[in-house]
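Let's sit down with a protein and look at its sequence and fold side by side. We need material for that, and I hope you will provide a protein of your own picking. Once you have written the record down, we can walk along the chain together.

***
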Amino acid sequence: MRVAVVYFQSGNSAVKKTAEALAQGIATENHIVDLINGETDTDKKLTGYEYIAIGTAPQTLFRGRISDRISTYLKNAGMLSGKRSYAFVCKKGFGSAKALRSLMADMEKEGMMLKISDVLYSAEEATAAGKKLHVKK
């Protein structure tokens, strides 16, 4: 299956490392994985992917805000309604759970079907999560 791992760094280099580790974990299950930087690859359409993982980190330590670029990107990413998906947030401060809820709300607003979501603490945890994702229908 074709899988897209889209990440939004928001000034946090751990997000890219976590997204790369997640992509590695998914690839070990014989899936074709594309790693997409949502901040620089703004024209990349996600319509051709069967499974989409989206990740970020909170912009603040306590409030759990996420970048507005995420909702803008999703609005312009093609036909996402009904796509099976995974949301992840890198642990940062106390607002990670709230940031995850915000990310999930943005994804569901576009009609994406969230299968699972996580707050990830390390790249190793991301690799393990990628191996356990039920990408196939």
